[in-house]
Amino acid sequence: MLTVRQTPSRNVFSLDGVWDFRVDRNNCGVDDGWYDAPLKDSRPMPVPASYNDVVTDTDVREHVGVVWYQRYVQVPRNLGDDRLILRFGSATHAATVWVDGSEVMSHEGGYLPFEADITDLVEAGGSFLLTTAVDNRLSWHTLPPGYIHKDTQGNDVQKYMHDFYNYAGIHRSVLLYTRPAVSVTDVTVVTDIDGCDGIVSYTVEAEGAKAVSVRLLDADGNEVARAEGAKGELRVDDAHLWAPGDGYLYTLEIHADEDVYPQTVGIRTVEVKNSQFLINGKPFYFRGYGRHEDNIVRGKGHDNVMLVHDFELMKWQGANSFRTSHYPYAEEVMDYADREGFVVIDETAAVGLNIGLSGGLFGAPEGVPTKTFSDESLDARTQQVHEAHIRELIARDKNHPCVVMWSIANEPESNTEESYDYFKPLAEAAREADPTRPVGYVNVMLAPPSMEKCVGLFDVVMLNRYYGWYVDTGNLVDAEANLRAEIDGWIKLAPGKPIIFTEYGPDTLAGLRDFHRRPWSEEFQEDMFAMFHRVFDDVDEVVGEQMWNFADFQTVSGIIRVGGNKKGMFTRDRLPKSAAYDVRKRWLAMRDELGF
Question: Cα separation of 430 and 391, whole Å?
Fold first, then answer.
């Protein structure tokens, strides 16, 4: 799906702002026709934002089920023959949208965009009532999965197996935009390098167009190549490559009859070879974090102020990459990573596919299936949803040069034959959707090399490891020995595959200082990171360190979570913990030695 752009042939109108909002306490609003008239007993709610932390009402914050958003929208006066498209950046986790009482679209999956052509339902220069029902409920057939539990009062309680708070609402911008009746609806760009020249292969979809042509412009707007036709190849002499730390972007200006669409292009290559991760043929070492779209009050609502500030903090520390843990991030984040030269591991919302992990931490509740992959839990239907999500993510992000790899799941069960059968067609689907990038998944500690079944399906070994924290707690001598032994096991099991540590680190309470450097103290975080880094430096097959986490983030309440997950390098309000300075010293030295 194309990103919305303002162009000479397209106009974009933001519908962000304060909408009317109502909680559907009995989840009866659809049956009762709430979409057909102005909401009764509504309250104001900002869009985009999670609604949970905006309010002070606990029953609203913890509501399980449907909430309603509504506003009036002014239609542009001069539509002519243009089509009018309504687009939501995301709504978590499912949404249905009505225009003046007519249903125009529904979408499942809380982290990807959806849109509908509403031209025939509205009048130019008029207005319409826009209504959206957003449902935060999770099931065995959603990504991420979950299930509904009844408390002693008969109330629904959402249970889920991912370790971040289930924020809900309209999380990204809502837009109204125009495009010509005959227009560009998709474009795929694949780049290569031939000596000093860049190769840009393109495919344009523009049904009904009589003429399609393209121009490639450099960053200064100068034309460097052009071609006719909906499919072709452009050669750029002495190309300026997109590279880590150098987010140089060309623009592929596409003309389809009267429509003009600009697609940014970063010329670069990605390859996995001989235990190395190569960008533009050069070994790349990942320095960075797993992150979350998580901020005080806003929850998962996108905010451009926090976007820029977070990137400033990452650059201050010498990071060069991050993983979109554990779901696709806003399109604005991907655009910004492109221009800033940050490298991104792009991950699906397939987190929590591991009943054994949640049962081991919290104890499996009565009546919950004990097998992760079965007819009673994650089944063939879930697999279909998962594949559709992979394809939808790749369709959205395929043209971003910052994206160097697809991660199709975080910490799933991967030590059973059922898990192999589940993931084999998904890995194949990812490669079919995009043959140009490596495909991986993130392995959990419950599936060490001696038990792992799925690593052969993927191109890279990505590991979340907590030696010294969840195991060998506080004993960094044993933790180091066990970490080294496991890495040796992976090298033997998956020879030639690079290893990236995508999570490591302890919970750390900011301000807790300890002469004895015990767990939860800032000193212990320093020591645990130092141990992991010492090991990484000794192993050539390790090509990346992305610690957990960039910043503290909100989770469900629990005895192992005090006001959320505290594994951040920064606090939730983005203040550095003491380890941030040690890591900064390390990463800046690595940047000077290895390049960005």
Answer: 7
Distant-in-sequence, close-in-space partners of 565: CB < 8 Å, separation ≥ 6: 163, 164, 507, 549, 552, 553, 554, 555
pTM for this predicted structure:
0.96
Enter the DSSP assignment of 120. Answer: G
Of the candidates 62, 64, 52, the one whose C-alpha atom is nearest the C-alpha of residue 146 is 64
**Contacting residues for 176 by C-beta, under 8 A, at least 6 apart:** 12, 13, 15, 73, 76, 84, 85, 86, 87
Closest CA to 531 of 585, 462, 479, 594: 479
Q: How far is CA 44 from the centre of its chain?
A: 28
Which among 355, 291, 364, 365 has a CA at the least distance from the CA of 328? 291
Phi, psi dihedral angles at 233 (to 5 degrees): -140, 135
- The CA-CA-CA angle for residues 366, 371, 411, to 5°, reads 110
Any alpha helices (H) in 434-572, and if so which ranges?
476-493, 522-537
pLDDT in tens, 529-581: 999 999 999 999 999 999 999 999 999 988 888 899 999 999 999 999 999 99
Helices (H), 292-373: 304-317, 331-340, 355-362
* pLDDT digit string, tens, across residues 144-162: 999 998 888 888 899 999 9
What six digits make up the tokens of 148?
Answer: 């509904």
Integer Cα distance of 345 and 154 in angstroms: 42
Do residues 47 and 19 lie in contact, with contact meaning Cβ atoms separated by under 8 Å? yes
Q: Render the burial of 51-73: b for 16+ CB within 10 Å, e for the rest.
A: bbbbeeeeebbebbbbbbbbbeb
Cα separation, 361 vs 357, in Å, equals: 6
Check: CB of residue 248 under 8 Å from CB of residue 242: yes
Is 503 designated active site?
yes
Closest of 522, 506, 514 to residue 472, by C-alpha: 506
Tens-digit pLDDT profile for residues 199-258: 999 999 999 999 999 999 999 999 999 999 999 999 999 999 999 999 999 999 999 999
Conformational region of residue 227, where left means phi above 0, alpha means psi within -120 to 50, and beta covers everything else: beta
Beta-bridge partner residues of 559: none
pLDDT in tens, 68-127: 999 999 999 988 999 999 999 999 999 999 999 999 999 999 999 999 999 999 999 999
Helices (H) and strands (E) in the chain, counts: 9, 30
Tokens of 177: 């935009």
Separation between Cα atoms, residue 60 and residue 41, nearest integer Å: 14
Q: Confirm if 193 and 239 have CB atoms less than 8 A apart.
A: yes
The per-residue pLDDT for 363 is 46
| Residue recorded with tokens 């594994």 | 567
Q: Which uninterrupted H or E stretch holds 419?
A: helix 417-433
Which residue in the list 115, 253, 392, 411 is annotated as catalytic?
411
Contacts of 513 (CB under 8 A, 6+ apart): 521, 522, 523
Bridge partners, residue 191, by sequence: 200
| Residue-level length of the chain | 596
C-alpha 263/C-alpha 257 separation (Å) is: 17
How many other CB atoms are there within 10 angstroms of residue 237's CB atom? 10
Kindly name the residue from 503, 522, 523, 541 that is annotated as catalytic: 503
Q: Give catalytic status of residue 228 as yes or no.
A: no
